[in-house]
Amino acid sequence: GRAPPTRARVPADEPKEISIDDSAEAASLESVADAAPAIGETIAGRAALRQEPEMESALVMLESATGAIRAMVGGWDFDRSHFNRITQAKRQVGSAFKPFVYGAALEAGYTPADTLFDAPVAFPGAELLLTYSPRNYRREYLGIITLRKALEKSINVTATKLLDMVGAERTVDFARRCGIEGDLQPYPSLALGTADLTPLEIASAYSTLGNQGVKVEPFMIERITTADGRILEEHIPRATEVVSPQVAYVLTHMLRGVFQRGTAISAASLEVPVAGKTGTTDSYTDAWFVGYTPRHTLLVWVGYDQVRYLGRGMTGAAAALPIWRMTIERGIEEGWIDPNDRFERPAGVSTRRVEYHTGLLASDDATRTVHETFLAGTEPVQLYEGSWAGVLDLPWYQQRPFYGLPKAGERMPEDVDDWSLVQERWERKDDPESFKDEEEEVEPAG
Question: Which pTM was predicted?
């Protein structure tokens, strides 16, 4: 169970009592300190036994069911900067926003086993002309792909397609209900996390998913009492179901795959059920990892206060996930994270064994399968055939005839009138989805 909170009295006419989790706070501080690269210079006038980094890191841990902030690290050193990056900084969140696109799609009737066609396409830009063409990592396109695989591998084109098909307004509504309050512009690039948001609101929104769709406002102080124990103020959590438990569970099950086969596979050995998502922004300027156990939601951000290149390969998986993992491991070791906790499956959710790459019901021909979750009544009915393996080995443009008719509202490569636009995007280096800006430095194995 969770370690008992400490009690700190603040001198005043009426002493106040503040409750914090010292174990979680200490573990969080040490994880940030241990992971910080010594690449900066010491501040003038101060002696240091270790070199202080120029870059910053921030962390927040919420108890998902109550909204209690159990740990918060606003930066490297409060003496160096009083700026709390968890509550005050607004940064682009990159692919950490993608779960809200997929959540809106689940509400709209899509399933994790549904497929889209991953290929170069164009979307309306600022002037409503087809001028926006997002790119995947290494400019590679996979052709036929399930929503599960697209989320696990953080595929940019598929996420943008899905937002376009579901509707930006529906996606914004889903994110708002979960707890995101910042400005969300309904453009295709929203799917790739171009909105400037505070880490606390992102962590709060993820905690809604981990709390079976129930939103609870974050808080830092449980109660304030006088010296004789009289309660002056006490926080009463207010919980509201904003997403159905079924949708929250299916999305959580998809995000668990990020650890099992996706961009967080380096933390797959954690001895507790976890779900989460990496995030990396333009030119490696911000690195994120946001994830949750059945009880806690933990966010880690790494970056500079002034937008600046972190360095080649400083993705969410490389820069933020190690801190996240160390904190979870410390919690398991000290007992305030219980490895026996489980994400409870609600009524109205079914499971089926499906072939991983196609989402079709697994047959004896299927060599790679997953146990997939579905809202009751949305399970697939078509059985996988071994001939699909040869199709999926083809380049995306040769897979196109086998995909058949596009889904309703799905933009396809044959809809692109001006391929010079796509070619230009392939060659540019200054956009959020360019070669050096992609989320995954190395394609995950497995």
Answer: 0.86
